[in-house]
Design goal:
Layout (H helix, E strand, L loop, with lengths): L7 H5 L24 H6 L4 E4 L13 H10 L2 E4 L9 H10 L3 E3 L18 E7 L6 H14 L4 E4 L3 H7 L13 H8 L8 E4 L11 H11 L3 E5 L18 H12 L7 E7 L6 E4 L3 H19 L6
Parallel strand pairs: 1-2, 2-3, 4-6, 4-7, 5-6, 7-8
Antiparallel strand pairs: 8-9
Helix pairs in contact: 3-4, 7-8, 9-10
Length: 312
């Protein structure tokens, strides 16, 4: 594993992780033993995961030698980046020579339909955020684990590359063409028994100009009964965009309730504060006056929304 800023695989699939490999002194660690690709193969590793999610999802030229070394040492390569491993000539050549696999996780399924907004059976929970990178995946995984421990019939529905690697299935929503975002979310969370919960990993933020379109399509297609707002109280600005202040939790609950009401009029919100860098935190309901204002605003605007065809 090339070290990343987060260690989701090490935390949630520890039995499958042998070690980590870093390019230089990054100061980042997943808490695993440091190994070269050759050492990892001797320890039983079968693949190396590129544990980086950079802007644009590119494969940096400086990684090329390490990726080729991993292939020549006997490891398959697994990537969650937008860029395809096989598009790098040296990596593609090394894979052919060694017979190793190049696995691109950020590949959506074919034939995704457009969203219909049809109300589906079963219950759904979606994690949303005041911004990106503040615990939506961890919160969804922790809630799913708690549901299972309490005997609740539930599935974790992964929407990002790390979540897909952890769960073994899912749809990388940020790799789906915008017109099909809602349809992909509907495909990910199909009809289910009345007592079943789909715990859906959120993406982006409705308040982040870079990724709001993704968040909206996922919200409409997921049609959640409950959404959890994930928030970092120490963050003052939208990540990577200093010109935008962080929204309040009340603002996120209000706009998510109003926009989500297009496909589920009974949507309700809660909020989650991370207690530490990793893991979920404490969830609470919005106060009754905020919930009442949001519901009233939703009902007042629902008529206009029913006659539109909203793209993701």
């Amino acid at each position: 594993m090339i070290r990343s800023k987060r260690s989701g695989l090490a935390d949630w699939t520890a039995d499958s992780c042998v070690g980590e490999y870093a390019l230089g002194e990054t100061g980042l660690t997943a808490g695993l033993p440091a190994m070269t690709p050759a050492d990892a193969v001797k320890a039983g590793a079968k693949s190396m995961v590129i544990g980086v999610a950079n802007p644009g999802g590119i494969i940096a030229p400086s990684w090329q030698a390490a990726l080729v070394d991993a292939l020549e040492s006997g490891l398959d390569l697994v990537s969650g980046l937008h860029a395809r491993l096989g598009d790098d000539p040296a990596v593609a050549d090394a894979a052919r020579r060694t017979g190793r696999q190049l696995i691109d996780v950020r590949t959506p399924p074919s034939s995704i339909p457009v969203g219909t907004g049809r109300k589906r059976t079963g219950k759904r929970l979606l994690t949303v955020g005041t911004d990106c990178a503040l615990g939506k995946k961890y919160t969804a995984l922790a809630l799913h684990k708690a549901f299972i421990e309490r005997g609740v019939n539930a599935d974790f529905r992964a929407t990002g590359q790390t979540g897909i690697m952890i769960a073994g299935s899912g749809i990388p929503m940020d790799a789906v063409v915008s017109d099909f975002e809602a349809g992909a979310a509907e495909m990910l969370s199909p009809d289910a028994p009345a007592d079943h919960w789909d715990v859906i990993e959120g993406q982006g933020s409705l308040f982040n100009p870079s990724y709001a379109a993704l968040s909206l399509g996922l919200l409409h297609g997921s049609q959640p009964d409950v959404f959890i707002v994930c928030h970092d109280p120490t963050r003052k600005k939208i990540i990577g965009l200093d010109g935008f202040d962080m929204p309040t939790i009340e603002e996120v609950i209000d706009i998510t309730t109003r926009l989500g009401g297009l496909t589920n009029r009974n949507i309700q919100g809660r909020c989650c504060f991370p207690q530490q860098e990793r893991g979920a935190g404490i969830c609470r309901a919005p106060d009754s006056s905020q919930r009442h204002r949001s519901r009233q605003h939703l009902v007042g605007n629902a008529g206009a929304g029913q006659s539109r065809s909203d793209a993701g």
